[in-house]
Amino acid sequence: MNLELRPEVATGYKSLSQKARVMTETWAEENLYCPSCPSDNLNPAPTGKRVIDFSCSNCDEHYQLKSQSRPFGYSVANSAYEPKIKAIRERRNPNYLFLHYDPREFKVQNLFLVPKHFMTPAIIEKRKPLSANARRSGWVGSNILLGNLPLDARIPIVKDGYEVPKDAVRNAWSRFLFLREQTLYSRGWLADVLTYVRKLDQETFTLSDMYEFEDQLAKLHPRNKHIRPKIRQQLQILRDRGIIKFLGRGKYQVI
Ligand SMILES: [Zn+2]
After folding, report:
1. Of 42, 52, 174, 178, which one has the fewest beta carbons inside 10 Å?
2. Is the CB of residue 106 less than 8 Å from the CB of residue 23?
3. Rounded CA separation 158/140 (Å)
């Protein structure tokens, strides 16, 4: 993977944003590989001005690329809200690739993948409708709340200017594929419990450590009155899938 962008592909464009778009799209077309299978390239399918979809002709996974010249933060603006929620419910949503480039050095600094199986309605925020004066008055966009995702949902492909080995990327991808077999409801629970396991940032933890998050989890799942049994159930699933290990007596180890 060559991390240099090629400014020469954008010479015909005037505005900086157009230049940036062409450079990052060309880069992706020339350098991206499929994280979900052994295929070494992805096919671009332009869909709009700022969005480009890629698909893998081998495994048929779809990826949507979002590029910007500053690091991605807690939240990132995205497409129309209702269609997005509908796509998630119907499991038609794409995987996301978030690319951060250095506009002075013309270099890819960070690129991470958020697999579609981590996407739930809970991490999509509804934006205010556009004002009456706006060209698309009344249009309702969305934000993807990257900060609410467990760390496992952000798979680095390029980190701080260095490429992550392909094997590591593909392993990280396949580790949580089991989420696709779960309902949207249980995927949400699993991701939330995993988020708090990661927040503890400890090699081992106890059930009481996890019960400390009871209030936060209750807020995220207001209709559920049995938060503690739900936490235990998610930990069991994470154990069965080899993400954590039971050490006995309410103690767990992160693998
Ligand atoms: Zn593939």
Report:
1. 174
2. yes
3. 32
Superfamily of domain 7-179: Dam replacing family, catalytic PD-(D/E)XK domain (3.40.210.30)
Domain ranges of the chain: 7-179, 184-254
Tell me the mean pLDDT in the region 48-77.
Answer: 87
Name, of 13-17, 49-53, 200-204, the range with top average pLDDT. Answer: 200-204
Name the one residue in this structure whose structure tokens are 């809200």.
81
pLDDT of residue 44: 87
Contact between 186 and 210 under an 8 Å Cβ cutoff? The reply is: no
Q: What is the pLDDT of residue 48?
A: 60
Cα of 33 vs centre of ligand 1, distance in Å, is 8
Q: Which residue do the tokens 């779809």 mark?
A: 62
Decide: helix, strand or coil at residue 201.
Answer: coil
Ligand 1 centre to CA of 39 (Å) is 5
Helices vs. strands in the chain: H and E counts, helices first: 7, 13
Name the strand (E) or helix (H) holding 248.
strand 244-248
| 55 CA to centre of ligand 1 in angstroms | 8
56 pLDDT higher than 70: yes
Please indicate whether the domains covering 7-179 and 184-254 agree at the CATH topology level.
no
136-195 pLDDT, tens digit per residue, is 888 999 999 999 899 999 999 999 999 999 999 999 999 999 999 999 888 999 999 999
Q: Are 234 and 221 in contact (CB under 8 A)?
A: no
Domain covering 184-254: architecture: Orthogonal Bundle (1.10)
Residue 25 has a CB neighbour count (10 Å cut-off) of 20
| Å from CA of 58 to ligand 1 middle | 5
Ligand 1 mean position, distance from CA 40 (Å) = 8
